[in-house]
Protein: Putative D-lactate dehydrogenase
Amino acid sequence: MKALLYSMTPEQKVYVDQWNKEHPDDDLQTTDDDLDAKTVEQAEGFDVVSVLQVFDLDEEEVYRKLASYGIKHIALRSVGYNIVNFDYAHKYHLLITNTPAYSPRAVAENTLTSAMYLLRKWGPILKNEREDLNFVREANLMSDEIYNQTVGIIGVGRIGSATAEIFHALGARVIGYDIVENPANEAFLEYTDFETVIKESDILSLHTPFTPDLEGMISAKEFKEMKNTAVLINAARGPLVDNKDLIAALKNNEIAGASLDVMTGEEAIVMKKFNDISELPEDYQELVKMPNVVFTPHSAYYTKTSVKNMVNQSMTDAKRVLSGEKPVYPVDE
Ligand code: COI
Structure:
């Protein structure tokens, strides 16, 4: 198998090199570039390409050229597959696979970290001590304890259920909503409807994939229905939350805080460094000043386990497809 892995980083490269060593018949090559119409030509001569990027693969040229090189498979190294244009994938007979099991725990543990950070008011505590050298235990810094909280999970798939399990183990009441209910999850979560999760959660965490019908799933109406002591955690996909409505809800104290690993417009900031706050997109300029908001750079997934598994699982499927076997993780719309 001759594979080209786009968007390569040194941490992933370790596992690419290991794969090449352990599979002498394979030739995995890498490029730092994301896949787009400008970089697709690098794929000529390869059997398969692999992608890990937040930018949409929305240029027909990319799919047309890959097909013209005889490539039949794009092996995503991500859980999410919302970047794919399936009309073009179908038109050019390109099979898509993803890596949904690289480590649901990675995102679940990051969600726990976010929840505890917000619950224990570490944002304002850090602001007080770093900006004002203020170490006073002010009344507004008093917290609650996790086992008194209701944790609401929207989207109870692999990541949502791993998250629910962790909070259940800590004694929290965990409620969840999904269009498909899995009875096995009832050991640690109570299924209910979307509105109840919105209204009753102290910690509301999103774990659905992104599809266009879910754009703005959490908007002004939901913020008004949420408890004003509740916090929102989004480590799923940015467009699930309406940025403007989120900013308004935080300013009007309709909710108490937010942890955002993803956000609409993140392409402009993730993996980039800035010199001044004025260089950030407007939404970020507003949110970054709020001590009850924390951003992480789409890094909820980013653990050693995930990085290793995303390389190995994507290449395992690449090999299966090339040898005529069914892939483990095919995806379609
Ligand atoms: C995913 O795997 O879906 C992620 O969100 C990781 C990202 C770097 C694409």
